[in-house]
Amino acid sequence: MRAYPGTNLVSALFVLSALFATDGVVAGQPRGDRPAVITPGSYAPVTDQRLISAIHDDANWMSYGKDYSDTRYSRLDQINDESVSKLGLAWSQDINSQYANEATPLVIDGVMYAALPRNVVWALDAKTGRRLWEFTPELDLTYGRVACCGLITRGLAAWGDNIYIATIDGQLIAVNRRSGEKVWSVQTAEMKDGYTITAAPRVVKGMIIVGNGGAEYRARGYVTAYDAESGKQIWRFYTVPGNPADGYDSEAMKMAATTWTGEWWKHGGGGNVWDNMAYDPELDLLYLGVGNGGPNNAKIRSPGGGDNLFLASIVALKPDDGTYVWHFQQTPAETWDYTATQQMSLVDLEIDGKLRKTIIQAPKNGFFYVIDRETGEFISANNYAPVNWATHIDQTTGRPVETPWARWYDSDEPVFITPGVQGAHDWQSMSYSQATGLAYIPTMHYGIPQLAVTPEETDRQVYTSGFDHLLLKIPDDAQTVEAVRKEHRGELVAWDPIRQQAAWSVDYDHPWNGGLLSTAGNLVFQGTSNAEFVAYAADSGKRLWSFPTQSSTVAAPITYSVGDEQYVAIMTGWGGAFSNALGGTIPAKGKPRAGQLLVFKLGGTASATVFPDPVPAQFPAPEPVGSDESVAEGEKHYYTYCVVCHGEGAVAGPNFPDLRHSPFIHSQASFDAVVLDGALANKGMSSFKDKLSVGETEALRSFLIHRANTPTAKDDLSSRGERK
Fold first, then answer.
1. Is the Cα dihedral 246, 250, 254, 257 positive or negative?
2. Is CATH 1.10.10.10 the right assignment for the domain spanning 628-719?
3. Which residues contact 311 (CB under 8 A, 6 or more apart)?
4. pLDDT tens across 462-491, in order?
5. Contact at 8 Å (CB) between 466 and 148?
6. What pLDDT, in 10s, does the model give residues 557-567?
7. Where are the domains of the chain?
8. What are phi and psi of 23, to 5 degrees?
9. Active site residues
10. Can you name the residues that pair with 442 across neighbouring β-strands?
């Protein structure tokens, strides 16, 4: 951990700004009347006024980022840097799922609403953990094949008397808060071209607003607004243009089309708003964080060049009708999977003696941005993590100054790009503290080789694995594997958005860690890949408290109060894109145990279920089958179709079966029943009959049997095994 000068001055300035803010509203927060006192369990409707006033509502956590500013900061301070040592478990619930728990629970009037894998929703007494109801939607689990990160969800929305969840297979469902019964549902994403939804919906002015994912699978990005009461569609905004011959969906798309060339619409284009949105009720502007291009190779997607709007951009809309207002593009002609879908926080900052309404964001590309949220004007940017694709951001234009080797598709050799496709910061939420004036970022340090493939290969691969240009295959020698493991690490960075520099940081030995929560108690909470839930001093980074979570954690914590007690809650359970693809080769210290919902309070004395260490699968390796040529062909199929879920080198991450030790590889008939006939479709393993023939599955099986019989340096059998 290292400290930086200037932190005390920054803290003092923000404390003073809080003291002099009108009605006690700290700069950067939506204004509104203080909420009325609500009796726990009263199920009072969630209204515009309650959401606008959520900054004053210390008891509740009513939306994904707590309030419209999306800072994940709470004014609660009963649990603080002096009392946190007395923090103990108040209650817990076991979550028996093979997938990651990535969601942020909501707490409204003493009831907690938690979203689980497969889009299951729980309602629980927020004080005791008593289960009130459970809602299990009907899902088409075959879409697990194009869900990059498993059958997961990141959260819920609330409006009126309902809770809303968007499902992996493209549904938007309204569920009654009191009974858990479905009120209505609508199909918001067409279940073709790889559309999926993992993000929490957003609520603005009585509308539920939903984006989607799928840029790797021919998808064209858009967001849709629905009436919260009826589910009727109100408007839809596309983020990249379609075929000009069909006409333009809006004037914004007509303008954006001038920045594309070729026949991009045949590839979909990408630009999916697969996670973050934010809203400023004072300016009445909705902000979209737009994703990567599809395919990633910009030369295939737009062969004549161009910036390819609105890829990797922040776009501001009028929420009433989805009318375009302004945009700022962070990564023109995006080609590295550098999405701008990461969390946007709305804060007011004093810059050069002037109070500016800003958006702050730490997107995948490694640079921390401060943007004027009224106009989209660029204010400043600096890298918060190591980058080698650009030397800096031009402080006049806001455009990156790329390095000569950044455009990997112009090289005949692999180009090592930092950050890699998961970015310097992925979906795990940062937090911004009003007390310290610092943003806390779950940062990743890693890179990955990238190499262009032919358009024919892209057509085959990009719509199946999503990794059309990535060389995930790591050489098997021990020295190389160890070097890769050492190079990949994580960091909690406390970032000063005005000075554009770090105030302090904490190093982790694995890059894939949880989201953040900061509080007025001078605390920052984070779950880690080392299977700990940790509290740090927000002003200094001093480690103050920790709790063993058994499983590694990627979700972000929340805090709330019931009566006169403050609680802190987090969902544990590791997984997601990085850990699925690379979690076996680059393992975390935490074992792949089932996740839990853990809730803490001062003086808590409850005990959580203790899970035993995973037991490695006992199936012996079958005798090798097939020729060397068949194994090589099977390896190609594996890296085309299987690696995203089942891991680099067939070394499984935490959420999917280790195919080297699967009973299904012992028989070609059993293997084909799963891979071709969809025998495990109800578990999320859908058929690949449209991609693989019987002969190709024989080659794939021969490769997996070869891997079972050929241990390598990248194998980590100690962390594999059956989930208990």
1. negative
2. no
3. 239, 240, 269, 270, 271, 290, 291, 292, 293, 329, 331, 333, 334
4. 333 344 455 556 667 777 777 777 788 999
5. yes
6. 999 999 999 99
7. 628-719
8. 55, 25
9. 337
10. 492
Confidence band of 686 (pLDDT split at 50, 70, 90): confident
Which pLDDT score, from 0 to 100, does residue 502 have? 98
What does the alpha-carbon distance between residue 593 and residue 613 come to, in Å, rounded to a whole number? 8
On whether the CB atoms of residues 687 and 680 are closer than 8 A, the answer is: no
Question: Residues 106, 111, 117, 118: is their CA dihedral positive or negative?
Answer: negative
* Residues 238, 221 contacting (CB under 8 angstroms): yes
Rounded to whole angstroms, the Cα distance separating 457 from 469 reads 10
pTM of the model: 0.91
Tell me the CB-side half-sphere exposure of residue 533, using CA atoms within 13 A. 27
Q: How far apart are CA 683 and CA 355, in angstroms?
A: 53
Q: E strand or H helix at 457, and its extent?
A: helix 455-461
Residue found by looking up tokens 């029943």 in the block: 673
DSSP secondary structure letters along 402-449 = E-TT--GGG-SS-EEESS-TT-SS-SS--EE-TTT--EEEEEEE--EE
Please provide residue 501's backbone torsions phi and psi, each rounded to the nearest 5 degrees. -155, 160
Tokens of 534: 């940790």
Distance (Å, whole) CA 217 – CA 703: 26
Q: Three-class SS of residue 274?
A: coil
Which DSSP string corresponds to 362-402? --TTSEEEEEETTT--EEEEEESS--SSEEEE-TTT--EEE
φ, ψ of residue 496 in degrees (nearest 5): -90, 110
Distance, CA of 277 to CA of 275 (rounded, Å): 7
Share of the chain above pLDDT 70, in %: 89
Residue 52 has which token pair? 């606008």
* Cβ pair 27, 347 in contact under 8 A: yes
